[in-house]
Fold this sequence. Notes:
Layout: H1 3-11, H2 18-35, H3 41-56, H4 63-74, H5 81-111, E1 119-122, H6 127-138, E2 144-148, H7 155-165, E3 170-173, H8 178-182, E4 187-190, E5 194-195, E6 201-204, H9 207-216, E7 221-224, H10 232-235, E8 268-271, E9 278-281, E10 284-286, H11 291-300
Parallel strand pairs: 1-2, 1-4, 2-3, 4-7, 7-9
Antiparallel strand pairs: 5-6, 6-8, 9-10
Amino acid sequence: xxxxxxxxxxxxxxxxxxxxxxxxxxxxxxxxxxxxxxxxxxxxxxxxxxxxxxxxxxxxxxxxxxxxxxxxxxxxxxxxxxxxxxxxxxxxxxxxxxxxxxxxxxxxxxxxxxxxxxxxxxxxxxxxxxxxxxxxxxxxxxxxxxxxxxxxxxxxxxxxxxxxxxxxxxxxxxxxxxxxxxxxxxxxxxxxxxxxxxxxxxxxxxxxxxxxxxxxxxxxxxxxxxxxxxxxxxxxxxxxxxxxxxxxxxxxxxxxxxxxxxxxxxxxxxxxxxxxxxxxxxxxxxxxxxxxxxxxxxxxx
Length: 301
C-alpha cells in the first residue's frame, strides 16, 4: 500500500494493534523508498522524512509506530541514493522479521507464567498476549479465558473469536463486569501500546480499571510487550499523549444536540507499575520498574 493509504487505514483503525501498525508502516515506507525519484541524496532523504512523518502522525500514543519508523530511518544512510535505499530496505526486512519473532519469544516465556487449570482474563486484542495464551494451550494446559468486549470498538470480540477458534473456552463479558468476575480469575494477561521509562503501561482504555480490580483481588497482571513499545522519549521528560477519537464512536451525537453534554472518547489510559506483576519482552521477563533497561537494550540493537 502507498503511504497515504496506509496512513489512512491506521488513522481510521482499519489497521490496528500496535505491532501490526508498526510493521505495516515500515513496509509502506519501504515501498515509498523504492518509488522515490530524486536528483540527490538530500532530496531523497527529505522525501523519506516527509513520508515517515505522515505515518508517525496517525496515532500519537502508540510509540511502537514511532520507534519502528525511527529504527528504520536511522539506518537509511549511505553515499548514494542506491546505498541509502538498500540500507532502508534491509532495515525494514530486519525489523519485520524481528517483530514477528519477538511475539513467539514472548509467548514462550509468558506461557511459563500460566499454570494448568488457570482462568485468565484479557482486555482488548493484543497479538502478543493472545499468542501467549494459545502457547500455554498448545503445551497441554487446561485453561479458560474471560475476554472483555473492549468498547467502543469491540476489539475483545476479535480476541474471543481467535481464542475459541484455537480450542480455548472463552467467556465474553462487558468491560464494566471485570470486577464482578475477577474473583474467578487466576491471572490477567494484557498487551501494551507504550511502556514508559518509569514502568507506566499505556494500553487500551479500561486497562487501568482491570489492573485495579486485579490488585484488589490479589490477581497478578502480566503485560506482554515487544521492546520497540518502550518509550525512550519518556526517559527524556516527554509525556505520552493520550489520543482521543471522534465522539461518534460512542454515541449518535445528534441525540444530544442543543444540550450541555460533553462527550469524551479517550483511546488509552495509564496503569501505574505498582499494579503490574511483570512485563514479558523478547529480551526477558522484567519488573515494570526495570523498563529503562529494556529501552537501553533496544537502543543498542
